[in-house]
Amino acid sequence: MAVLETTARDQRAAGEATRRRKNARRTTNPYSPAHRGDAKLAWVLIAPALVGFAVFAAYPTLRGIYLSFTDFAVLSPPEWIGLDNYRQLLHDEVFWSSLGVTVYFVLLSVTLSLIVSVVTAAVLHRLTSSTVVRGLIILPFLISAVVAGTVWWWMLDSQLGIVNIVIKAFGGDGIQFLTSRDWAIPSVALINVWKQMGYTSIIIFAGLQTIPPTIYEAGRVDGASELRMFRTLTLPLLRPILALVVVLNVIGAFQVFDIISVTTKGGPANASNVLQMYIYSKAFGQFDFGYAAAMSLALFVILIAITFLQMRLLRASESDTN
Amino acid sequence: MTATATRRRRFSVGKGFAWAYLIGVLVVTIFPFYWILRTALSDNYALSAHPASPLPVGFTWGPFKRVLGLATTQESIAEGGSGASIEIGHFLVNSVVYASVSTALIVFFSTLAAYAFSRLHWRGRDFMFSLFLTALMVPGILTLLPNFVLVKELGLLNTFAGMILPGALFSAFNIFFLRQFMLGLSTETEEAALLDGAGRLRVLFGITLPMSSGPIITLSILGFIGMWNDYFWPLLVTSDDSVQPLTLALAVFKQSSPQSQPDWAGLMAATLVAALPMLALFMVFGRRIVNSIGFSGIK
User: Fold this and answer.
1) pLDDT in tens, B195-208
2) Which residue ranges does the record assign to the ABC transmembrane type-1 domain (chain A) (predicted)?
3) Which residues face A79 on adjacent strands?
4) Right CATH number for B93-237 from 3.50.50.60, 1.10.3720.10, 3.20.20.140, 3.40.50.12780?
Protein backbone atom coordinates (compact mmCIF):
# COMPACT_ATOMS: atom_id res chain seq x y z
CA MET A 1 0.00 0.00 0.00
CA ALA A 2 2.71 2.41 0.97
CA VAL A 3 4.37 1.97 -2.37
CA LEU A 4 1.54 3.17 -4.47
CA GLU A 5 0.83 6.13 -2.29
CA THR A 6 4.09 7.58 -3.42
CA THR A 7 3.73 7.40 -7.18
CA ALA A 8 3.56 11.09 -7.83
CA ARG A 9 6.38 12.04 -5.58
CA ASP A 10 8.70 9.87 -7.58
CA GLN A 11 7.59 10.90 -10.98
CA ARG A 12 8.23 14.44 -9.95
CA ALA A 13 11.75 13.80 -8.87
CA ALA A 14 12.55 11.30 -11.59
CA GLY A 15 13.36 13.96 -14.12
CA GLU A 16 15.75 15.61 -11.75
CA ALA A 17 17.38 12.26 -11.08
CA THR A 18 18.04 11.61 -14.74
CA ARG A 19 19.61 15.00 -15.10
CA ARG A 20 21.86 14.43 -12.15
CA ARG A 21 22.82 10.99 -13.31
CA LYS A 22 23.90 12.35 -16.68
CA ASN A 23 26.14 14.86 -14.98
CA ALA A 24 27.64 12.15 -12.84
CA ARG A 25 28.44 10.06 -15.87
CA ARG A 26 30.22 12.94 -17.52
CA THR A 27 32.55 13.46 -14.61
CA THR A 28 33.41 9.88 -13.64
CA ASN A 29 34.98 7.33 -15.86
CA PRO A 30 33.14 4.05 -15.34
CA TYR A 31 36.23 2.06 -16.27
CA SER A 32 38.51 3.73 -13.80
CA PRO A 33 40.29 1.36 -11.42
CA ALA A 34 38.19 2.70 -8.55
CA HIS A 35 35.15 1.01 -10.06
CA ARG A 36 36.65 -2.32 -10.88
CA GLY A 37 34.53 -5.05 -9.33
CA ASP A 38 31.56 -2.74 -8.93
CA ALA A 39 29.28 -4.84 -11.10
CA LYS A 40 29.59 -7.98 -9.04
CA LEU A 41 29.00 -6.16 -5.77
CA ALA A 42 26.10 -4.20 -7.26
CA TRP A 43 24.22 -7.35 -8.23
CA VAL A 44 24.80 -8.79 -4.77
CA LEU A 45 23.48 -5.61 -3.17
CA ILE A 46 20.35 -5.41 -5.28
CA ALA A 47 19.71 -9.17 -5.15
CA PRO A 48 17.15 -9.06 -2.28
CA ALA A 49 15.28 -6.16 -3.89
CA LEU A 50 15.39 -7.89 -7.27
CA VAL A 51 13.94 -11.10 -5.82
CA GLY A 52 11.23 -9.07 -4.05
CA PHE A 53 10.46 -7.18 -7.23
CA ALA A 54 10.24 -10.31 -9.36
CA VAL A 55 8.36 -12.56 -6.94
CA PHE A 56 6.06 -10.14 -5.11
CA ALA A 57 5.52 -7.30 -7.58
CA ALA A 58 6.10 -8.29 -11.21
CA TYR A 59 4.86 -11.87 -11.01
CA PRO A 60 1.64 -11.06 -9.09
CA THR A 61 0.87 -8.22 -11.50
CA LEU A 62 1.18 -10.49 -14.54
CA ARG A 63 -0.63 -13.26 -12.73
CA GLY A 64 -3.43 -10.88 -11.73
CA ILE A 65 -3.86 -9.98 -15.39
CA TYR A 66 -3.89 -13.67 -16.32
CA LEU A 67 -6.34 -14.60 -13.56
CA SER A 68 -8.75 -11.94 -14.77
CA PHE A 69 -9.30 -14.09 -17.86
CA THR A 70 -10.03 -17.22 -15.84
CA ASP A 71 -12.58 -18.84 -13.62
CA PHE A 72 -10.65 -19.36 -10.41
CA ALA A 73 -11.92 -20.36 -6.99
CA VAL A 74 -8.47 -20.92 -5.38
CA LEU A 75 -9.03 -24.59 -4.56
CA SER A 76 -9.08 -25.86 -8.14
CA PRO A 77 -6.70 -24.63 -10.86
CA PRO A 78 -7.79 -21.59 -12.87
CA GLU A 79 -9.77 -22.27 -16.02
CA TRP A 80 -9.39 -19.99 -19.05
CA ILE A 81 -12.69 -18.32 -19.93
CA GLY A 82 -11.50 -15.50 -22.16
CA LEU A 83 -13.37 -12.25 -21.78
CA ASP A 84 -16.28 -13.66 -19.77
CA ASN A 85 -15.31 -11.83 -16.57
CA TYR A 86 -15.18 -8.55 -18.44
CA ARG A 87 -18.51 -9.25 -20.12
CA GLN A 88 -19.97 -9.94 -16.69
CA LEU A 89 -18.40 -6.70 -15.46
CA LEU A 90 -20.19 -4.66 -18.10
CA HIS A 91 -23.56 -5.98 -16.97
CA ASP A 92 -22.88 -6.07 -13.24
CA GLU A 93 -25.02 -3.35 -11.72
CA VAL A 94 -23.35 -3.71 -8.35
CA PHE A 95 -19.98 -3.02 -9.95
CA TRP A 96 -21.17 0.17 -11.60
CA SER A 97 -22.91 1.34 -8.47
CA SER A 98 -19.72 0.54 -6.52
CA LEU A 99 -17.75 2.60 -8.98
CA GLY A 100 -20.21 5.46 -8.57
CA VAL A 101 -20.08 5.21 -4.78
CA THR A 102 -16.27 5.15 -4.87
CA VAL A 103 -16.04 8.20 -7.12
CA TYR A 104 -18.51 10.04 -4.88
CA PHE A 105 -16.39 9.16 -1.86
CA VAL A 106 -13.16 10.21 -3.57
CA LEU A 107 -14.58 13.57 -4.65
CA LEU A 108 -16.02 14.38 -1.23
CA SER A 109 -13.06 13.16 0.73
CA VAL A 110 -10.30 14.66 -1.42
CA THR A 111 -11.97 18.05 -1.93
CA LEU A 112 -12.77 18.47 1.73
CA SER A 113 -9.39 17.20 2.88
CA LEU A 114 -7.57 19.50 0.47
CA ILE A 115 -9.48 22.62 1.52
CA VAL A 116 -9.11 21.95 5.23
CA SER A 117 -5.44 20.97 4.89
CA VAL A 118 -4.42 23.99 2.83
CA VAL A 119 -6.17 26.38 5.21
CA THR A 120 -4.74 24.61 8.25
CA ALA A 121 -1.23 24.59 6.83
CA ALA A 122 -1.45 28.29 5.90
CA VAL A 123 -2.80 29.20 9.34
CA LEU A 124 -0.10 27.15 11.05
CA HIS A 125 2.56 28.75 8.90
CA ARG A 126 1.31 32.23 9.72
CA LEU A 127 0.70 31.72 13.45
CA THR A 128 3.00 29.23 15.03
CA SER A 129 5.94 26.98 14.33
CA SER A 130 5.27 24.97 17.47
CA THR A 131 6.06 21.30 16.98
CA VAL A 132 3.58 20.49 19.73
CA VAL A 133 0.68 21.92 17.73
CA ARG A 134 1.78 20.09 14.60
CA GLY A 135 2.21 16.95 16.68
CA LEU A 136 -1.34 17.15 17.99
CA ILE A 137 -2.70 17.71 14.50
CA ILE A 138 -0.97 14.59 13.28
CA LEU A 139 -2.31 12.29 16.01
CA PRO A 140 -5.16 10.80 13.94
CA PHE A 141 -2.64 9.74 11.30
CA LEU A 142 -0.80 7.61 13.86
CA ILE A 143 -3.74 5.44 14.83
CA SER A 144 -5.07 2.73 12.54
CA ALA A 145 -8.15 3.26 10.39
CA VAL A 146 -9.75 0.46 12.42
CA VAL A 147 -9.36 2.49 15.61
CA ALA A 148 -10.52 5.69 13.91
CA GLY A 149 -13.52 3.93 12.40
CA THR A 150 -14.53 2.37 15.71
CA VAL A 151 -14.37 5.67 17.61
CA TRP A 152 -16.42 7.52 15.04
CA TRP A 153 -18.86 4.62 14.83
CA TRP A 154 -19.51 5.31 18.50
CA MET A 155 -19.54 9.10 18.25
CA LEU A 156 -21.90 9.03 15.23
CA ASP A 157 -24.28 6.49 16.77
CA SER A 158 -27.84 7.60 16.14
CA GLN A 159 -28.99 7.21 19.76
CA LEU A 160 -26.09 7.62 22.18
CA GLY A 161 -23.49 9.21 19.90
CA ILE A 162 -22.26 12.56 21.11
CA VAL A 163 -22.50 14.19 17.67
CA ASN A 164 -26.24 13.57 17.45
CA ILE A 165 -26.73 14.67 21.03
CA VAL A 166 -25.05 17.97 20.22
CA ILE A 167 -27.10 18.39 17.04
CA LYS A 168 -30.30 17.75 18.99
CA ALA A 169 -29.22 20.16 21.74
CA PHE A 170 -29.05 22.88 19.09
CA GLY A 171 -32.57 22.01 17.99
CA GLY A 172 -31.64 19.93 14.93
CA ASP A 173 -33.01 16.55 13.95
CA GLY A 174 -30.86 13.55 14.68
CA ILE A 175 -28.97 12.19 11.66
CA GLN A 176 -28.59 8.48 10.86
CA PHE A 177 -24.96 9.02 9.92
CA LEU A 178 -23.77 5.51 9.20
CA THR A 179 -27.10 3.76 8.81
CA SER A 180 -28.90 5.80 6.15
CA ARG A 181 -28.29 5.65 2.42
CA ASP A 182 -27.81 9.39 2.04
CA TRP A 183 -25.40 9.85 4.89
CA ALA A 184 -23.26 6.71 4.79
CA ILE A 185 -20.69 7.93 2.25
CA PRO A 186 -20.47 11.55 3.51
CA SER A 187 -19.96 10.21 7.05
CA VAL A 188 -17.22 7.83 5.99
CA ALA A 189 -15.62 10.63 3.98
CA LEU A 190 -15.65 12.84 7.08
CA ILE A 191 -13.95 10.13 9.12
CA ASN A 192 -11.36 9.76 6.38
CA VAL A 193 -10.74 13.51 6.28
CA TRP A 194 -10.37 13.56 10.07
CA LYS A 195 -7.75 10.84 9.83
CA GLN A 196 -5.77 12.15 6.82
CA MET A 197 -6.03 15.89 7.31
CA GLY A 198 -3.11 16.28 9.72
CA TYR A 199 -0.72 14.33 7.53
CA THR A 200 -1.65 16.35 4.46
CA SER A 201 -1.41 19.62 6.40
CA ILE A 202 2.10 18.84 7.59
CA ILE A 203 3.29 18.05 4.07
CA ILE A 204 1.79 21.31 2.79
CA PHE A 205 3.22 23.15 5.80
CA ALA A 206 6.68 21.82 4.94
CA GLY A 207 6.12 23.07 1.41
CA LEU A 208 5.19 26.52 2.71
CA GLN A 209 8.41 26.68 4.68
CA THR A 210 10.42 26.36 1.48
CA ILE A 211 8.91 29.58 0.09
CA PRO A 212 11.39 32.39 0.80
CA PRO A 213 9.86 35.08 3.06
CA THR A 214 11.34 37.83 0.88
CA ILE A 215 8.60 37.13 -1.68
CA TYR A 216 5.98 38.13 0.87
CA GLU A 217 7.93 41.20 1.90
CA ALA A 218 7.89 42.30 -1.73
CA GLY A 219 4.14 41.71 -1.87
CA ARG A 220 3.60 43.67 1.32
CA VAL A 221 5.59 46.61 -0.02
CA ASP A 222 3.25 46.60 -3.02
CA GLY A 223 0.35 46.81 -0.57
CA ALA A 224 -1.13 43.37 -1.24
CA SER A 225 -3.49 41.99 1.42
CA GLU A 226 -2.89 38.66 3.18
CA LEU A 227 -5.65 36.94 1.24
CA ARG A 228 -4.44 38.33 -2.05
CA MET A 229 -0.89 37.21 -1.36
CA PHE A 230 -2.18 33.76 -0.47
CA ARG A 231 -4.01 33.53 -3.78
CA THR A 232 -1.43 35.06 -6.07
CA LEU A 233 1.82 33.98 -4.39
CA THR A 234 1.34 31.04 -2.06
CA LEU A 235 -1.01 28.84 -4.07
CA PRO A 236 0.92 29.06 -7.36
CA LEU A 237 4.22 28.39 -5.60
CA LEU A 238 2.69 25.42 -3.83
CA ARG A 239 1.42 23.88 -7.02
CA PRO A 240 3.92 20.99 -7.20
CA ILE A 241 3.24 19.96 -3.60
CA LEU A 242 -0.51 20.34 -4.03
CA ALA A 243 -0.40 18.18 -7.14
CA LEU A 244 1.48 15.53 -5.19
CA VAL A 245 -0.96 15.69 -2.30
CA VAL A 246 -4.01 15.47 -4.57
CA VAL A 247 -2.64 12.48 -6.45
CA LEU A 248 -1.73 10.68 -3.20
CA ASN A 249 -5.12 11.41 -1.67
CA VAL A 250 -7.02 10.31 -4.78
CA ILE A 251 -5.09 7.05 -5.09
CA GLY A 252 -5.54 6.35 -1.38
CA ALA A 253 -9.24 7.26 -1.41
CA PHE A 254 -9.94 5.00 -4.39
CA GLN A 255 -8.72 2.08 -2.30
CA VAL A 256 -10.59 2.92 0.89
CA PHE A 257 -11.45 -0.23 2.80
CA ASP A 258 -10.50 -0.27 6.49
CA ILE A 259 -12.81 2.48 7.72
CA ILE A 260 -15.77 1.09 5.80
CA SER A 261 -15.17 -2.44 6.96
CA VAL A 262 -15.50 -1.38 10.63
CA THR A 263 -18.33 1.14 10.20
CA THR A 264 -20.91 0.49 7.49
CA LYS A 265 -19.52 -2.76 5.98
CA GLY A 266 -20.68 -1.43 2.61
CA GLY A 267 -24.27 -0.93 3.71
CA PRO A 268 -27.01 0.01 4.02
CA ALA A 269 -28.01 -1.85 0.85
CA ASN A 270 -24.69 -1.24 -0.97
CA ALA A 271 -24.89 2.51 -0.30
CA SER A 272 -21.26 2.51 0.79
CA ASN A 273 -20.09 -0.59 -1.02
CA VAL A 274 -16.89 0.86 -2.47
CA LEU A 275 -14.86 -1.00 -5.10
CA GLN A 276 -12.27 -2.48 -2.78
CA MET A 277 -15.01 -3.71 -0.47
CA TYR A 278 -16.83 -5.31 -3.40
CA ILE A 279 -13.64 -6.89 -4.71
CA TYR A 280 -12.87 -8.26 -1.27
CA SER A 281 -16.34 -9.74 -0.83
CA LYS A 282 -16.23 -11.32 -4.31
CA ALA A 283 -12.83 -12.87 -3.63
CA PHE A 284 -13.17 -13.94 -0.02
CA GLY A 285 -16.93 -14.13 0.40
CA GLN A 286 -17.77 -15.93 -2.84
CA PHE A 287 -14.29 -17.19 -3.83
CA ASP A 288 -14.70 -15.71 -7.28
CA PHE A 289 -11.04 -14.78 -7.65
CA GLY A 290 -11.13 -14.51 -11.43
CA TYR A 291 -13.86 -11.90 -11.33
CA ALA A 292 -12.19 -10.09 -8.42
CA ALA A 293 -8.97 -9.97 -10.45
CA ALA A 294 -10.84 -8.49 -13.42
CA MET A 295 -12.27 -5.77 -11.17
CA SER A 296 -8.82 -5.09 -9.69
CA LEU A 297 -7.46 -4.63 -13.19
CA ALA A 298 -10.31 -2.26 -14.02
CA LEU A 299 -9.53 -0.25 -10.88
CA PHE A 300 -5.85 -0.23 -11.87
CA VAL A 301 -6.65 1.16 -15.33
CA ILE A 302 -8.87 3.83 -13.77
CA LEU A 303 -6.13 4.84 -11.33
CA ILE A 304 -3.49 5.08 -14.05
CA ALA A 305 -5.77 7.19 -16.24
CA ILE A 306 -6.65 9.52 -13.38
CA THR A 307 -3.04 9.91 -12.29
CA PHE A 308 -1.91 10.90 -15.77
CA LEU A 309 -4.84 13.24 -16.20
CA GLN A 310 -4.15 14.93 -12.87
CA MET A 311 -0.47 15.32 -13.47
CA ARG A 312 -1.26 16.95 -16.78
CA LEU A 313 -4.02 19.20 -15.46
CA LEU A 314 -2.03 20.31 -12.46
CA ARG A 315 1.19 20.52 -14.45
CA ALA A 316 2.79 18.97 -11.42
CA SER A 317 6.41 19.33 -12.41
CA GLU A 318 6.40 23.08 -12.68
CA SER A 319 5.23 25.86 -10.43
CA ASP A 320 3.68 28.96 -11.95
CA THR A 321 6.75 31.06 -11.51
CA ASN A 322 8.78 29.59 -14.33
CA MET B 1 -0.18 56.92 9.92
CA THR B 2 -3.91 56.19 9.99
CA ALA B 3 -3.61 53.87 7.03
CA THR B 4 -0.99 51.78 8.83
CA ALA B 5 -3.07 51.65 11.98
CA THR B 6 -6.15 50.47 10.12
CA ARG B 7 -4.22 47.81 8.33
CA ARG B 8 -2.71 46.57 11.53
CA ARG B 9 -6.11 46.33 13.18
CA ARG B 10 -7.65 44.52 10.25
CA PHE B 11 -4.68 42.24 10.28
CA SER B 12 -5.13 41.35 13.94
CA VAL B 13 -8.84 40.66 13.38
CA GLY B 14 -7.72 38.23 10.69
CA LYS B 15 -5.26 36.77 13.15
CA GLY B 16 -8.06 36.30 15.66
CA PHE B 17 -10.06 34.35 13.10
CA ALA B 18 -7.00 32.30 12.26
CA TRP B 19 -6.48 31.40 15.91
CA ALA B 20 -10.15 30.53 16.30
CA TYR B 21 -9.92 28.28 13.25
CA LEU B 22 -6.77 26.59 14.51
CA ILE B 23 -8.27 25.97 17.93
CA GLY B 24 -11.39 24.59 16.26
CA VAL B 25 -9.29 22.18 14.20
CA LEU B 26 -7.35 21.10 17.30
CA VAL B 27 -10.55 20.47 19.25
CA VAL B 28 -12.03 18.33 16.48
CA THR B 29 -8.72 16.46 16.19
CA ILE B 30 -8.26 15.80 19.90
CA PHE B 31 -11.84 15.38 21.08
CA PRO B 32 -12.31 11.79 19.85
CA PHE B 33 -9.25 10.74 21.86
CA TYR B 34 -10.73 12.23 24.99
CA TRP B 35 -14.07 10.64 24.20
CA ILE B 36 -12.44 7.21 23.97
CA LEU B 37 -10.98 7.65 27.45
CA ARG B 38 -14.17 9.09 28.91
CA THR B 39 -16.30 6.24 27.54
CA ALA B 40 -13.79 3.55 28.46
CA LEU B 41 -13.97 4.57 32.11
CA SER B 42 -17.78 4.60 32.17
CA ASP B 43 -20.41 2.05 33.05
CA ASN B 44 -22.57 0.93 30.10
CA TYR B 45 -25.89 1.40 31.91
CA ALA B 46 -24.93 4.82 33.24
CA LEU B 47 -23.79 5.71 29.72
CA SER B 48 -27.20 5.18 28.20
CA ALA B 49 -28.75 7.29 30.96
CA HIS B 50 -26.26 10.16 30.62
CA PRO B 51 -24.85 9.98 27.10
CA ALA B 52 -23.84 13.65 27.03
CA SER B 53 -21.92 13.83 30.30
CA PRO B 54 -18.46 15.25 29.55
CA LEU B 55 -16.91 13.19 32.35
CA PRO B 56 -16.96 9.41 32.81
CA VAL B 57 -20.33 8.29 34.15
CA GLY B 58 -20.47 5.59 36.80
CA PHE B 59 -16.67 5.52 36.88
CA THR B 60 -15.34 1.96 36.69
CA TRP B 61 -12.31 -0.01 35.52
CA GLY B 62 -14.73 -2.74 34.39
CA PRO B 63 -14.37 -2.13 30.64
CA PHE B 64 -10.59 -2.52 30.81
CA LYS B 65 -10.95 -5.65 32.91
CA ARG B 66 -13.38 -7.10 30.36
CA VAL B 67 -11.10 -6.31 27.44
CA LEU B 68 -7.99 -7.65 29.10
CA GLY B 69 -9.79 -10.80 30.16
CA LEU B 70 -9.49 -10.04 33.87
CA ALA B 71 -13.25 -10.27 34.43
CA THR B 72 -15.20 -13.51 34.39
CA THR B 73 -17.70 -14.08 31.61
CA GLN B 74 -20.62 -13.57 34.03
CA GLU B 75 -19.21 -10.28 35.29
CA SER B 76 -18.59 -9.18 31.74
CA ILE B 77 -22.11 -9.97 30.57
CA ALA B 78 -23.60 -8.36 33.67
CA GLU B 79 -21.83 -5.13 32.72
CA GLY B 80 -23.11 -5.24 29.15
CA GLY B 81 -20.10 -6.99 27.61
CA SER B 82 -20.09 -10.07 25.43
CA GLY B 83 -17.59 -12.13 27.39
CA ALA B 84 -15.02 -11.71 24.63
CA SER B 85 -11.62 -10.33 25.51
CA ILE B 86 -8.35 -9.40 23.82
CA GLU B 87 -5.21 -11.18 24.97
CA ILE B 88 -3.43 -7.90 24.77
CA GLY B 89 0.10 -9.07 25.55
CA HIS B 90 -0.07 -11.73 22.89
CA PHE B 91 -1.39 -9.47 20.11
CA LEU B 92 1.01 -6.74 21.12
CA VAL B 93 3.90 -9.13 20.55
CA ASN B 94 2.45 -10.09 17.15
CA SER B 95 2.16 -6.44 16.13
CA VAL B 96 5.66 -5.64 17.34
CA VAL B 97 7.10 -8.60 15.43
CA TYR B 98 5.17 -7.83 12.26
CA ALA B 99 5.87 -4.08 12.24
CA SER B 100 9.47 -4.07 13.40
CA VAL B 101 10.77 -7.03 11.38
CA SER B 102 9.03 -5.78 8.22
CA THR B 103 10.38 -2.28 8.69
CA ALA B 104 13.92 -3.33 9.57
CA LEU B 105 14.20 -5.68 6.58
CA ILE B 106 12.73 -3.37 3.99
CA VAL B 107 14.79 -0.38 5.08
CA PHE B 108 17.98 -2.46 5.19
CA PHE B 109 17.49 -4.05 1.75
CA SER B 110 16.48 -0.70 0.28
CA THR B 111 19.65 0.89 1.62
CA LEU B 112 21.80 -1.79 -0.02
CA ALA B 113 20.05 -1.32 -3.36
CA ALA B 114 20.18 2.48 -3.10
CA TYR B 115 23.95 2.28 -2.57
CA ALA B 116 24.34 0.16 -5.69
CA PHE B 117 22.25 2.63 -7.69
CA SER B 118 23.96 5.75 -6.41
CA ARG B 119 27.62 4.83 -5.95
CA LEU B 120 28.55 1.86 -8.09
CA HIS B 121 29.10 1.85 -11.82
CA TRP B 122 27.79 -1.18 -13.57
CA ARG B 123 26.22 -2.14 -16.83
CA GLY B 124 22.42 -2.31 -16.63
CA ARG B 125 22.18 0.07 -13.71
CA ASP B 126 19.91 2.59 -15.40
CA PHE B 127 17.75 -0.12 -16.88
CA MET B 128 17.28 -1.90 -13.54
CA PHE B 129 16.45 1.37 -11.84
CA SER B 130 13.76 2.27 -14.37
CA LEU B 131 12.41 -1.26 -14.12
CA PHE B 132 12.11 -0.93 -10.33
CA LEU B 133 10.36 2.40 -10.65
CA THR B 134 7.59 0.92 -12.79
CA ALA B 135 6.40 -0.85 -9.64
CA LEU B 136 5.29 2.54 -8.32
CA MET B 137 2.52 2.64 -10.87
CA VAL B 138 0.94 -0.61 -9.75
CA PRO B 139 -1.64 -0.16 -6.98
CA GLY B 140 -1.81 -2.58 -4.08
CA ILE B 141 -5.15 -4.01 -5.05
CA LEU B 142 -3.74 -5.54 -8.25
CA THR B 143 -0.97 -7.44 -6.48
CA LEU B 144 -2.75 -8.24 -3.19
CA LEU B 145 -5.00 -11.02 -4.46
CA PRO B 146 -2.31 -12.82 -6.49
CA ASN B 147 0.10 -12.37 -3.58
CA PHE B 148 -2.46 -13.99 -1.32
CA VAL B 149 -2.69 -16.93 -3.74
CA LEU B 150 1.11 -17.15 -3.84
CA VAL B 151 1.46 -17.09 -0.06
CA LYS B 152 -1.20 -19.76 0.16
CA GLU B 153 0.60 -21.94 -2.41
CA LEU B 154 3.83 -21.54 -0.48
CA GLY B 155 1.98 -22.83 2.57
CA LEU B 156 2.70 -19.62 4.45
CA LEU B 157 -0.84 -18.61 5.45
CA ASN B 158 -1.01 -17.89 9.17
CA THR B 159 2.74 -17.48 9.51
CA PHE B 160 4.86 -14.42 10.14
CA ALA B 161 6.88 -15.32 7.05
CA GLY B 162 3.76 -15.09 4.91
CA MET B 163 2.76 -11.78 6.45
CA ILE B 164 6.18 -10.19 6.26
CA LEU B 165 7.95 -11.60 3.22
CA PRO B 166 5.96 -9.96 0.37
CA GLY B 167 6.73 -6.50 1.71
CA ALA B 168 10.16 -7.08 3.20
CA LEU B 169 12.42 -7.25 0.17
CA PHE B 170 11.49 -4.59 -2.29
CA SER B 171 10.11 -1.08 -2.00
CA ALA B 172 10.50 1.12 -5.05
CA PHE B 173 9.79 4.23 -3.03
CA ASN B 174 12.37 3.48 -0.32
CA ILE B 175 15.06 2.73 -2.88
CA PHE B 176 14.24 5.86 -4.83
CA PHE B 177 14.11 8.05 -1.73
CA LEU B 178 17.46 6.81 -0.37
CA ARG B 179 19.16 6.92 -3.76
CA GLN B 180 18.12 10.55 -4.22
CA PHE B 181 19.56 11.37 -0.83
CA MET B 182 22.83 9.52 -1.46
CA LEU B 183 23.28 11.23 -4.84
CA GLY B 184 23.09 14.57 -3.06
CA LEU B 185 25.65 13.53 -0.47
CA SER B 186 29.28 14.60 -0.82
CA THR B 187 31.45 11.63 -1.72
CA GLU B 188 34.72 13.12 -0.51
CA THR B 189 35.02 11.09 2.67
CA GLU B 190 34.06 7.90 0.86
CA GLU B 191 36.63 8.47 -1.87
CA ALA B 192 39.32 9.22 0.66
CA ALA B 193 38.52 5.96 2.46
CA LEU B 194 38.59 4.04 -0.83
CA LEU B 195 41.98 5.53 -1.67
CA ASP B 196 43.18 4.44 1.75
CA GLY B 197 42.30 0.92 0.73
CA ALA B 198 39.01 0.43 2.54
CA GLY B 199 36.70 -2.07 0.84
CA ARG B 200 33.39 -1.04 -0.71
CA LEU B 201 31.35 -2.78 1.96
CA ARG B 202 33.33 -1.14 4.70
CA VAL B 203 32.67 2.27 3.12
CA LEU B 204 28.98 1.44 2.76
CA PHE B 205 28.49 0.40 6.38
CA GLY B 206 31.08 2.69 7.94
CA ILE B 207 30.51 5.93 6.07
CA THR B 208 27.55 6.06 3.67
CA LEU B 209 25.07 4.38 6.00
CA PRO B 210 25.76 6.60 9.04
CA MET B 211 25.70 9.68 6.82
CA SER B 212 22.27 8.64 5.52
CA SER B 213 20.83 8.08 8.99
CA GLY B 214 18.36 10.96 8.56
CA PRO B 215 16.37 9.50 5.66
CA ILE B 216 16.84 5.98 7.05
CA ILE B 217 15.13 7.03 10.27
CA THR B 218 12.41 8.83 8.32
CA LEU B 219 11.65 5.73 6.28
CA SER B 220 11.77 3.53 9.37
CA ILE B 221 9.31 5.69 11.28
CA LEU B 222 6.87 6.01 8.40
CA GLY B 223 7.23 2.32 7.59
CA PHE B 224 6.66 1.28 11.18
CA ILE B 225 3.51 3.42 11.51
CA GLY B 226 2.17 2.01 8.25
CA MET B 227 2.87 -1.59 9.22
CA TRP B 228 1.56 -1.19 12.75
CA ASN B 229 -1.74 0.11 11.40
CA ASP B 230 -1.94 -2.33 8.50
CA TYR B 231 -5.22 -4.16 8.39
CA PHE B 232 -6.00 -5.39 4.89
CA TRP B 233 -2.99 -7.63 4.23
CA PRO B 234 -3.05 -9.39 7.63
CA LEU B 235 -6.80 -9.80 7.16
CA LEU B 236 -6.13 -11.69 3.92
CA VAL B 237 -3.34 -13.99 5.07
CA THR B 238 -4.17 -14.70 8.71
CA SER B 239 -7.17 -16.34 10.29
CA ASP B 240 -5.41 -17.70 13.34
CA ASP B 241 -4.93 -15.46 16.35
CA SER B 242 -1.46 -16.88 16.97
CA VAL B 243 -0.08 -14.43 14.40
CA GLN B 244 -2.79 -11.77 14.03
CA PRO B 245 -1.79 -8.21 14.89
CA LEU B 246 -3.63 -5.87 17.24
CA THR B 247 -5.64 -4.13 14.50
CA LEU B 248 -7.28 -7.43 13.60
CA ALA B 249 -7.85 -8.31 17.25
CA LEU B 250 -9.73 -5.05 17.70
CA ALA B 251 -11.87 -5.72 14.62
CA VAL B 252 -12.68 -9.21 15.89
CA PHE B 253 -13.52 -7.86 19.34
CA LYS B 254 -15.79 -5.28 17.73
CA GLN B 255 -17.61 -7.98 15.78
CA SER B 256 -18.20 -10.01 18.91
CA SER B 257 -20.00 -7.08 20.52
CA PRO B 258 -23.79 -7.46 20.25
CA GLN B 259 -24.98 -5.39 17.28
CA SER B 260 -28.24 -4.20 18.82
CA GLN B 261 -26.73 -3.03 22.10
CA PRO B 262 -22.97 -2.68 21.62
CA ASP B 263 -20.70 -2.77 24.65
CA TRP B 264 -19.61 0.81 24.04
CA ALA B 265 -17.46 1.14 27.15
CA GLY B 266 -15.67 -2.14 26.42
CA LEU B 267 -15.19 -1.21 22.78
CA MET B 268 -13.61 2.11 23.68
CA ALA B 269 -11.36 0.42 26.23
CA ALA B 270 -10.26 -1.98 23.48
CA THR B 271 -9.73 0.92 21.08
CA LEU B 272 -7.59 2.70 23.62
CA VAL B 273 -5.57 -0.42 24.24
CA ALA B 274 -5.02 -0.81 20.49
CA ALA B 275 -4.04 2.84 20.03
CA LEU B 276 -1.89 3.13 23.14
CA PRO B 277 1.40 1.75 21.78
CA MET B 278 1.34 4.25 18.90
CA LEU B 279 0.45 7.08 21.27
CA ALA B 280 3.34 6.07 23.53
CA LEU B 281 5.68 6.05 20.55
CA PHE B 282 4.40 9.50 19.72
CA MET B 283 5.17 10.77 23.23
CA VAL B 284 8.77 9.67 22.78
CA PHE B 285 9.40 10.45 19.10
CA GLY B 286 6.80 13.16 18.42
CA ARG B 287 9.17 15.75 16.99
CA ARG B 288 10.95 13.18 14.89
CA ILE B 289 7.66 11.87 13.47
CA VAL B 290 6.42 15.34 12.59
CA ASN B 291 9.70 16.23 10.89
CA SER B 292 9.80 12.91 9.05
CA ILE B 293 6.40 13.49 7.51
CA GLY B 294 7.32 16.98 6.36
CA PHE B 295 10.64 15.71 5.02
CA SER B 296 9.02 12.90 3.03
CA GLY B 297 6.85 15.36 1.13
CA ILE B 298 9.58 17.75 0.15
CA LYS B 299 12.14 15.26 -1.08
Assistant:
1) 888 888 888 998 99
2) 99-310
3) A71
4) 1.10.3720.10
